Amino acid sequence: MAAVRLELTLRDGTPVIVRPLIPEDHDALAEAYRRLSPEARYHRFWTHTGEVVGEKMLNQVLTQDPEKHVTWTVLDPTRDFPPVGGASWWRDAENPSQAELSAIVLDDDQGRGVGTLLLSVMWLTAFRVGIKQLIGYVQVENRQAAAWMRDCGAIGEWDGYKLIFRWDLENLDLLPETRVAAELADWLARLSPEILV
Q1: Residue 101 in contact with residue 154, Cβ under 8 Å?
Q2: Which terminus of the chain, N or C, has less C-beta within 10 A?
Q3: Smallest Cα–Cα separation from 24: which of 75, 62, 56, 69?
Q4: Which CATH number characterizes residue 58's domain?
Q5: Share of the chain above pLDDT 70, in %
Q6: In angstroms, what CA-CA distances link 184 with 63, 106, 149?
Q7: Which residues are bridge partners to 87 per DSSP?
Q8: Does any domain span residue 1?
Q9: Domain of 77, in residue numbers
Q10: Helices H, strands E: what count in the chain?
């Protein structure tokens, strides 16, 4: 992929850098995990964890394969600690047309469009390698994440334990008439020439 560093602007005017994670991001990734609130860590990892992330998890996230797993981050270069969020997808080995999406935005940066920007990057990087559906899993009590996914056009269902949201990457007509879906569509249009190369 030609474009590995995108200089963009969030809806509030903040200039950001969006790029894949690299091995040199190890310490920053560990620190970003530490800075998450206990609630954010629980909603992301579905278990109560401490502030220290294991080396195995860090290495899994940092070791990328464009066909099977990618992780990107959004950085605010004006800050002493630049990371504001990150997202990844993992291709399903049994059904390679699907990939599981996961994303996290630091607590103080939620509501600024970072998640929607990351979703657009995950959408395009997945679509580029033939993935047709992104799937996100959400705890029932995580209403904020569930509402965001619905507003971004994901179709949701409950399996008796968790909420399962699916995006059809080949059909933008399924996007609802919401502000975040419009923002997502705008990012997809803007970033397609950069990522789908």
Answers
A1: no
A2: C
A3: 62
A4: 3.40.630.30
A5: 88
A6: 27, 19, 11
A7: 72, 103
A8: no
A9: 6-195
A10: 6, 8
| pLDDT in the model for residue 3 | 47
- Encoding tokens for residue 164? 């399962």
Q: 35-52 as b/e, with b when 16 or more CB fall inside 10 Å?
A: ebeeebbbbbeeeebeee
Our CA angle for 34, 80, 188, nearest 5°, is 80
| Residue 120 neighbours by CB distance under 10 Å | 24
Amino acid letter at 196?
A: L
- Under DSSP, the state recorded for 160 is S
> Who has greater pLDDT, 101 or 173?
101
Residue 154, number of CB atoms within 10 A of its CB: 25
Predicted local confidence at residue 144, as pLDDT: 87
CA distance 170 to 155: 14
3-state secondary structure of 105: strand
Q: How many CB atoms lie within 10 A of CB 87?
A: 23
Across the chain, what does the average pLDDT equal?
87
Question: In this structure, is residue 35 part of a structural domain?
Answer: yes
Beta strands per DSSP E along the chain: 6-9, 15-20, 69-75, 83-91, 98-105, 133-138, 155-158, 163-168
**Which tokens hold the place of 29?**
């990734």
Cα 179 to Cα 76: distance, rounded to the nearest angstrom: 23
Put simply, whether the predicted model's pTM sits higher than 0.85 gets the answer yes
Give residue 52's identity as a one-letter amino acid code. Answer: V
* pLDDT the model gives residue 44: 60
